[in-house]
Amino acid sequence: MTTTPKSVAVPVATDDADALASDAQLLRIQRIGERLFNVAHCVVTFADASSGFHDGRQAVAHEFCRSLAEVEMLTVVQDASADPLLATHPMVSGEPRIRFHASSPIRDAGKAIVGAVHLVDYRARSFSEIDRRAMADLVGIAERELHVRSLNAIQLDLEKKNKTLRRKSLIDPLIGTWNRGAIMRILGIESVRCEKAGQPLSVIVVDLDFFKKINDTYGHPAGDAVLVKVTSRLRSSIRRQDSVGRYGGEEFLAVLPGASQQEAQAIAERMRAAVASEPELIGEALVNLTVSAGVASSDLFPAAGADELIGHADRALYAAKDAGRNCVKQARPDMQF
């Protein structure tokens, strides 16, 4: 009588490269088993039906081994045709006429059975005490590989979780863009990189006009929704290599590596136009949104560090506010504040 092994969850590496490497190692163990015992096939099976390690030539033997009941200890059938349980198996009574089968369980770190190492041959044969010890050694190698595979899966899972946590720590939870710490870090990195490459660096400080009035009139949830919409429009206006982050409550900072003062001015104008392009529906009211922006570029301030560049852009932003808002001002050395 034959039964299908019960399903047991086995931790496996989810990374493709690691999974392929682990599969190759188990196939290597199978080849060692075939040579060590001089049998037609050595097959490693796992109780988890999704896990299987065999090449094309082992497909029939693998199917035979998976059809057998789980064993608690080393089990040897020297002549399957004379065995009361296996004699009627279709792969014993018919093609490919399997005669010899030995199976020993693979256990995880908790001693639970998670698979087995099988030996299959097409002729009856004996199995000595030396063979039994060699089989125990082969199972030990397979168990060690399973342990390594499990550790790899755990490590990959931890790395993914850590990566997610690191990213979350850099993202503003409300608007889904870089937070202040992240955008300042990006500015510092780009400042060094542009200086080494002899490229200009520009920044834009953008402020949403009359945001307090929006909050006071329509409530803070509506104000939050407006910030999300404005962020989307700002991000759609920058280049692939640029970054934009939330610098303050309703204030944004854009970092433009390699952008000259003319390019930065054009990008800032594009941002302003995108925000003002259409009114936003808040409740039942259509509200016109506008931003003011200040631009500063290392073209005009070659000795300025990252913080100084932001200071110049901030002063240009104040000039834009004083000019009536909904406009862009470029910081210049001769600008009076």
From TrEMBL:
Pfam family, one: GGDEF
Record-listed E.C. numbers: 2.7.7.65
Gene Ontology biological process terms in this record: cell adhesion involved in single-species biofilm formation; negative regulation of bacterial-type flagellum-dependent cell motility
Residue ranges annotated for the GGDEF domain, each copy included: 199-333
GO cellular component: plasma membrane
Substrates-to-products reaction catalysed: 2 GTP = 3',3'-c-di-GMP + 2 diphosphate
Single Gene Ontology MF annotation: diguanylate cyclase activity
Source superkingdom: Bacteria
Protein name in UniProt: diguanylate cyclase
Native source organism of the sequence: Oxalicibacterium solurbis
Taxon lineage: Bacteria, Pseudomonadati, Pseudomonadota, Betaproteobacteria, Burkholderiales
